[in-house]
Amino acid sequence: MFRYFYTDILRVVSKVSFWILALIPGLAITGILMIQSSHYLSGYDVAIALRDIAILPEVFSIFAGIAILISVFHDDFKAKIMSNAIGSGIARFKVFLAKMLEVAVLAVLIGGISAIVVIFSMLSLGIETRMLNYLTIFCIFLTEALFVVAIIALISPVMFWFQSSIAGIIIYVIVATSAIYLLSFVLLNEDTVYLQSYLASHALRETTESLSLGKEIVTNDYLVLMAYIIIPSVVTMILFQYKDLEI
Predict the structure, then answer these.
(1) Quick check: helix, strand or coil at residue 42?
(2) In this structure, which of 7, 29, 74, 102 has its CB flanked by the most CB atoms within 10 Å?
């Protein structure tokens, strides 16, 4: 499994296209911050902006997720690399676990790159900050990376069953945006509004707020995000066992 993971991740990071895609989230967020740079007098203000301006986390999650889905799955499904690996004797559940591990590593990598780009832009703009603000910004992006992994895991049953990255990208964009979060306010009445706390987007918002304000992170928020990773992953591994693949 680890040899397959190592070989595949080298395939991804050796492509110039991946690094271009990996830079887009940080550059897009930096562009938005620079447009409104007059409002941010310190690194603390930037950290608060990353939490309060709804479009910023969405920009990261959408572009980072698309970059990972294209880099990890599109070429794989197209060239049937995954099918060949299974045909060579690697168990299907090991292939899936290797893919999800690759997704997690790349999400953290893109999160780190985005944090560095934002911090560099802060320094370029002469925004005063402290080391604690640097760490907060990194933590916010790493939490966003966890959200990306959770959503990719959530859509993995559909993607692995149909062996289609395009279907995965379409569903990912729908789930990763505020559409699901806003829809919950329409569908959930006052008696069931508490169910919103079990949305991955809500857990992410609560976690990033805790990080930006220096408050203690609620364990339940991380448990919700982990549930979005573990439960769909188990479903995918079960379904994937019965999927007929072209070798």
Answers:
(1) strand
(2) 29
Residue 234 structure tokens:
């188990």
Question: How would you label 187-223 residue by residue, b for 16+ Cβ within 10 Å and e otherwise?
Answer: eeeeeeeeeeeebbbbbbbbbbbbbbeeeeeeeebee
Four-point Cα dihedral 196, 61, 215, 185, nearest 10: -20
Q: Is the pLDDT of residue 172 over 50?
A: yes
Rounded distance between C-alpha atoms, residue 192 and residue 16, angstroms = 47
Closest by Cα among 33, 210, 46, 211 to 128:
46
Closest by CA position to 155, among listed 195, 200, 193, 186: 200
Hey, CA dihedral for 150, 151, 152, 158, is it positive or negative?
Answer: positive
Q: Which of 88-97, 152-161, 183-192 is least confident?
A: 183-192
pLDDT digits (tens, 9 = 90+) for 74-123: 877 777 777 777 778 888 888 889 899 999 999 999 999 998 988 887 77
Q: In angstroms, rounded to a whole number, what is the distance separating the alpha carbons of residues 43 and 246?
A: 52
Q: Six-digit token pair at 33?
A: 């911050």
pLDDT at 193 over 60: no
